[in-house]
Write a structure and sequence with these properties.
Blueprint: H1 20-37, H2 41-47, H3 53-61, H4 79-92, H5 94-114, H6 117-128, E1 134-137, H7 147-150, E2 154-158, E3 161-172, E4 179-186, E5 192-198, E6 204-208, E7 220-231, H8 242-277, E8 279-280, E9 283-284, H9 289-317, H10 323-348, H11 359-371, H12 376-388
Helix pairs in contact: 1-4, 4-5, 4-8, 5-6, 5-8, 8-9, 8-10, 8-11, 9-10, 10-11, 10-12
């Protein structure tokens, strides 16, 4: 008698490394996301609109407070749990996960890591409850990979006030955020500093970027700063240079590796389900050798990705992770993800380009995940310098 099918993409059982309580909590979150969040996903993606009711639904889970227990429910979760939570959000919809990640990881992470205790206490409780939504403004129109050296946005001090001038691009949540963490170069000492710009500040303009083919639900903005005046109390007090900005990015880069795994996993799940139900030549296409070959290649990629991100989370929990390890994880997982979504779309044939089958969305969204938080090339150079001792940056 043949063995029963093993459909899980977690083929080696990495979820078994979680505690029983963590697995139970994740199962509860998964059920809520499936019933409350997923029904909003495809329509929002197709219309390129953000359904603001999703904020209230996410707030009920207190997801934004998980990484900051003193501002959440007081319970500390493991790094590994955070990774699996990332998986669950992205399996539902990468756009919603990016909204959450920008708010929680980048905006709240900048304030938590770079702000004074007073600043943390002032902003993070409302952000953890999603009463105020954050954004993170680093990338510029003329500076993507070279944003550190090529940052043109400036900050000049006038007494107890800072005056910001410049432009930012690709700012997730930028059109509606209540608090935007803006990174600018101090005209006095040349160092990069962080500033929290509050909604409604004169001179701050955010315009939605139109015509995207990926992460369409995410409201990316072009931002202009024209003599925007920010009080010294809104300058992140523990940020002294771009190294502090890079520290935030290093933490979130590991999260993107988990995101890439999630996109690959969901693509595999969709492909396997389709292979089991799509009948051609009188039998399910999953019985054909070439289809099984595609599924096995996808599963191999996913298993390798799992090993890398799980170990990265374990190292982070022990305080032994490095920016170079996060860079390698991001470069490797996003490359393998790209292969997986392409194989999955191929398996669907013509149906793979129709949103009804969902794979088209993940195929398109993968291109954004592949590019942001440092391109594969830039992350490769970070790792290359680590292993050779020579910088190949131009």
């Amino acid at each position: 008698m043949p063995k029963p099918a093993n459909p899980t993409p977690d083929f080696f059982g990495y979820a078994d490394l979680l505690s029983d309580a963590e697995r139970a909590e994740l199962a509860s979150i998964r059920d809520y996301l499936e019933s409350e969040i997923k029904p909003l996903a495809n329509t929002a993606w197709e219309r390129a609109e953000f359904p603001f009711e999703v904020i209230e639904k996410m707030a009920k889970l207190r997801l934004a407070g998980y990484a900051y227990p003193e501002y959440g429910d007081g319970r500390s979760r493991s790094e590994l749990f955070s990774g699996f939570l990332n998986l669950e959000l992205n399996r539902i919809d990468p756009s919603f996960a990016v909204f959450s990640g920008v708010h929680t990881g980048l905006a709240m992470g900048s304030i938590y890591g770079g702000g004074s205790q007073e600043q943390r206490d002032r902003w993070l409780p409302d952000m953890a409850a999603m009463k105020k939504i954050g954004a993170f403004a680093l990338t510029e129109p003329e500076g993507g990979s070279d944003v550190a050296g090529g940052m043109r946005t400036t900050a000049r001090r006038e007494g107890g006030t800072w005056v910001l001038n410049g432009a930012k691009r690709w700012i997730g949540n930028g059109t509606f955020a209540d608090l935007v963490v803006v990174w600018a170069r101090d005209t006095a000492d040349g160092n990069v500093k962080g500033f929290v710009v509050e909604k409604g500040t004169p001179g701050f303009t955010a315009t939605r970027i139109e015509g995207k083919i990926a992460l369409r639900t995410v409201q990316n903005a072009d931002i202009t700063l024209d003599e925007v005046r920010v009080p010294e109390a809104n300058r992140l007090q523990r940020v002294d240079s771009f190294r502090d900005t890079a520290a935030v990015l290093a933490r979130t880069r590991g999260g993107v590796a988990w995101q890439a795994l999630a996109v690959a996993m969901r693509s595999y799940e969709l492909a396997r389900e389709y292979a089991a139900t799509r009948v051609q030549f009188g039998k399910p296409i999953g019985s054909f050798q070439l289809i099984q070959d595609l599924l096995v290649k996808m599963l191999g990629n996913i298993t390798a990705m799992f090993g890398m991100v799980v170990r990265l989370s374990q190292l982070a929990a022990a305080g032994r992770d490095s920016a170079e390890q996060a860079a390698l994880a991001k470069a490797f997982t996003t490359t393998r993800m790209r292969e997986c979504v392409a194989w999955a779309r191929e398996l669907f044939g013509g149906n793979g380009i129709v949103l009804d089958y969902e794979i088209a969305k993940f195929f398109a969204d993968a291109e954004a995940v592949y590019s942001f938080e440092g391109t594969r090339e830039m992350n490769t150079l970070i790792v290359g310098k680590s292993i050779t001792g020579h910088s190949a940056f131009a």
